[in-house]
Amino acid sequence: MHTISLEESVALIPNGASLMIGGFMAVGTPECVIDEIVRRKTHDLTVIANDTATPGKGIGKLIAAKLVRKIVASHIGLNPETQRQMMAGELDVELVPQGTLIERIRAGGFGLGGILTPTGIGTIVEEGKRRIEVHGKDYILETALRADFALVQAFLADYLGNLSYALTARNFNPVIAMAADIVIACADNIVPVGLISPDHVVTPAPIVDYLVMHA
Amino acid sequence: MEPQVAIASRIARELSSGMLVNLGIGIPMLVTNYVPARVEVFFQSENGLIGTGAPPQEGMAHPTLTDAGGRPVTALPGASTFDSAMSFGLIRGGHVDLTVLGGLQVDQKGLLANWMIPNKMVPGMGGAMDLVTGAKRVIVAMQHMAKGASKVVKKCTLPITSVRPVDLLVTELAVIAFRDDTAVLIETGAGVTVDQVLAATDAQLVVADDVRGMGDVASDL
Fold first, then answer.
1. Confidence check on the interface: ipTM exceeds 0.85, yes or no
2. In angstroms, rounded to a whole number, what is the distance separating the alpha carbons of residues A118 and A120?
3. Which of the residues A134, B8, B24, B35 has the least number of beta carbons within 10 Å of its own beta carbon?
4. Has residue B143 been placed in a domain?
């Protein structure tokens, strides 16, 4: 694990990169990283995340700045600009049921090729996918997702990069941390090693590549 | 009575102590206002919380304690938090006793459409498909009509949410139960006749022998 400045961390991300971004309606999204991406105008991004928040918040800022080429998400309904860009053909949107999305990411991080889920059987979601029967019940084969970078927001990080999360800001964060080639973590609080009890470490230090230093 | 109040207060009577319950956005959220006295349920927010409580007092909101709409909430004593994989494991895995969701259409077999209007409104399904597929019991809370047309239809014309039929539909006019691909009218709204319900309904309804008023059913004893 390396500590890194905010500017250096975002400089690692090339145009066209795929990003998994933590957060649920921008709660648990690393806003400082988002702001720096917008400042650098890193573009043609593929974003995998639960939602696109609202205009002016979290991933909504990337959408508004037209830096995203494709979004894989479960819900975009609270961001009219995402809907507008999708309808206008400016943004490729793949809508995935939330439980399927998080399991596809988990599979990507856990060395699995995909998952079998009953969610979406007989709906638009099943189109183009394989149906597999197991013990007499039908499932859809949903393939694993990975990304070039995971942008993670934690509550606590220690100097080694062990992470723990707060309340509903946990959401996608520990799952995406497993599913990307490079993990960039921000934390509300950076604390000495030992202050996070081993039982309370959710993302172990070896998973984290870069911890963004406070300015 | 406001339609939303009639719907939410009727659904609240389906709650019993110890249930794990997930409420969708809109009318379903209003159910929390009518939980009967002495009934203690766990409300789940699919963003990672069991034990979701009322919004906090002014000035007491915490930025990392929110519901699935991103609004500040409180956590009741005994609450727990978890990541999204766990949250949907609870949902898809059959651990959620009841979900209450809004609807655009429900058809006479109990199939629900509630996540998109092609080329018009494509918000995404969020957690709805997992909830309808995995929850032990599914109740739809919606108004009976929209723009003069019945939302209780013979067959959904909008994309369905799941092939799993819902268990109960509660509107301001009626309570309809779905049993073996059949829609059964079991209760009518206050001052509403069976004929009025049938006139406002596109779906084929079987009228139960003992149709009651939505307000008549004794509340939780």
1. yes
2. 6
3. A134
4. yes
Question: What are the structure tokens assigned to B78, written together?
Answer: 């005994």
Q: Which residues contact A197 (CB under 8 A, 6 or more apart)?
A: none
CATH number of the domain to which B137 belongs: 3.40.1080.10
Task: Report residue B99's pLDDT band, with 50, 70 and 90 as the boundaries.
Answer: very high
Q: In this structure, is residue B136 part of a structural domain?
A: yes
| Domain positions in chain A | 2-114+145-212
The beta-strand segments (E) located in chain A are 2-4, 18-21, 45-48, 68-73, 92-95, 114-117, 131-134, 137-143, 147-158, 163-164, 180-191, 210-212
Encode pLDDT of B70-88 as tens digits: 999 999 999 999 999 999 9
Dmax of chain B from CA atoms?
Answer: 53
Catalytic residues of B: 46
Is B219 part of a structural domain of the chain? no
- pLDDT score for B216: 66
Q: Which residue range(s) make up the domain with B47?
A: 3-213
CATH of A2-114+145-212, one of 3.20.20.370, 1.20.120.530, 3.40.1080.10, 3.40.50.1820: 3.40.1080.10
Count of domains in chain B? 1
CA B31, distance to chain mean position in Å, is 9
Q: How confident is the model at residue B120 (pLDDT cuts 50, 70, 90)?
A: confident
Q: Across the interface, which of A28, A93, A99 has its CB nearest the CB of B130?
A: A99
For B45, which residue in chain A has the nearest alpha carbon? A168
**A143-194 confidence digits (pLDDT tens):** 999 999 999 999 999 999 999 999 999 999 999 999 999 999 999 999 999 9
- What are B's interface residues with A at a Cβ cutoff of 8 A? 45-49, 62-70, 75, 81-85, 87-88, 91-92, 119, 121-130, 133-134, 159-163
